[in-house]
Amino acid sequence: MPESLSEQTGAAESSAKAPSKALLFDLSGIDLGARIAGKDEIAKWNPHRGNMAFLDHVVWVADDYSRAIGLRQVRSDEFWVAGHFPDKPMYPGVFQVETAAQLACFVFARRKDKPTLAAFLRIENCSFRSMVEPGDDLFILLQDVKFHRKRFIVDVQGVVGTRVTFECQISGMAME
User: What is the CATH number of the domain that holds 112?
Assistant: First the structure.
């Protein structure tokens, strides 16, 4: 496991509290170099396609689907680079949250054991802490808050190196 992420591992904070710089859960024993699902496998479970398929890899998922780690490899040839912002490209915060939402959709569908279209109902307590630039590997940490057959609530966090880039809580619902 890269030293940078393990240094920030800490106890999970309640989502009702102010965002913390500690990681959502302990990463010791998790191989962050693993790739259990790539774009093709993710596409079997998620409806996102083309330029809107932001989640590049699923790195790890807990056996009970209560926690997961995804990866977005931010590239310099992406459609948003020239305009957000010229001379200082930054991966848009809304795309960071969308990347996390796609990991949440993947985990939700896998837990239901069938591809599922999920609509996102809420993004709460969102805090952007650090920018993400082309060349960065953005790891998304996901932790269950609540899961039901038709709905879910997860805490998510983005991490690049030793920096927490954002954190929030996402709620979603199956569109069946």
Answer: 3.10.129.10
